[in-house]
């Protein structure tokens, strides 16, 4: 297991620009009609996402957890719908249970530790919501923080998990996924430390890793 305390963020990966422009303005276009029709077809609660989403618009407070989830899934997928049909079908199979999981995870993302919030969705190495794994539900935990710079839950997806071993020395991090809650806690702590050292927010470090393209 890599000792993260000795890892440093390469200078070329240090965030540049203003957070409100670079991170908050990170925009994705989505197939609005597909989301509207799918949510209606499955008779699911929540408002469908708009056709163009920035991080700032996703983390804007929502009236319910389903509206937040649809925004997160749409932003994370963009024009590629991936497994979203299966995700919506799985949620429709037990809306009350899904809502309870989403509410508890969103609350712990703000009031608890990253590991506690992560474990709501993936206890004992299995995903609680069908077709919703860490690459997507850590986005939900991140956006539940409503853009607060000090929010501890940050996105961990395959792009970031590939950049960390290749560019930052976290050799024991599996790039594909299936991480336990303890790994997410270590990741969140690492980015929080790097952010403090650079006088930045943790999501600025995450965004730099996400857009690094594998080399300086």
List the keywords.
3% strand, 216 residues
Outline the structure in words.
- The chain is mainly α.
- The chain has one domain.
- It is 53% helix and 3% strand.
- It has 11 helices and 2 strands; from the N terminus they run H-E-H-E-H-H-H-H-H-H-H-H-H.
- The protein has a two-stranded antiparallel sheet.
- It is globular and about 50 Å long.
- It starts with 18 loop residues before the first helix and ends in a 6-residue tail after the last helix.
Annotate the secondary structure layout.
Elements: H1 19-22, E1 27-29, H2 32-41, E2 52-54, H3 55-59, H4 65-77, H5 84-93, H6 95-111, H7 114-121, H8 134-143, H9 158-168, H10 181-198, H11 202-210
Antiparallel strand pairs: 1-2
The overall number of domains is 1
Question: Helical stretch count?
Answer: 11
What distance separates the N and C termini?
A: 26 Å
| Proportion in helices | 40-55%
Low-confidence stretches: none
Shape category: globular
* Cα gyration radius (Å): 17 Å
Q: Got a strand count?
A: 2
How much β-strand is present in the residues? under 5%
Q: Strand order, biggest sheet?
A: 1-2
The helix/strand order is HEHEHHHHHHHHH
Q: Describe the biggest sheet?
A: 2 strands, antiparallel
User: Structural class, from helix and strand content?
Assistant: mainly alpha
Mean pLDDT: 96
Task: Briefly summarize what is shown.
With 216 residues, the protein is mainly α. 53% of the residues lie in helices and 3% in strands.
């Amino acid at each position: 297991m890599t000792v993260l305390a000795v890892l440093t963020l390469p200078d070329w990966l240090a965030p540049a620009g203003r957070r409100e422009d670079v991170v908050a303005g990170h925009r994705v276009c989505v197939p609005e009609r597909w989301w509207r029709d799918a949510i209606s077809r499955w008779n699911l609660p929540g408002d469908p996402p708009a056709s163009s989403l920035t991080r700032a618009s996703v983390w804007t407070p929502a009236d319910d957890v389903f509206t937040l989830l649809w925004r997160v899934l749409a932003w994370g997928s963009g024009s590629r719908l991936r497994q979203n049909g299966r995700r919506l079908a799985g949620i429709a199979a037990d809306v009350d249970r899904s809502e309870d999981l989403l509410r508890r995870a969103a609350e712990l993302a703000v009031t608890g530790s990253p590991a506690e919030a992560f474990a709501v969705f993936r206890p004992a190495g299995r995903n609680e919501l069908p077709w919703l794994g860490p690459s997507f539900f850590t986005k939900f935990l991140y956006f539940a923080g409503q853009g607060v710079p000090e929010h501890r839950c940050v996105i961990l997806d395959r792009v970031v998990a590939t950049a960390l071993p290749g560019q930052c020395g976290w050799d024991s991090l599996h790039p594909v996924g299936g991480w336990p809650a303890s790994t997410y806690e270590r990741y969140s702590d690492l980015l929080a430390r790097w952010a403090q050292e650079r006088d930045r927010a943790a999501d600025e470090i995450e965004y730099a890793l996400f857009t690094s393209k594998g080399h300086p």
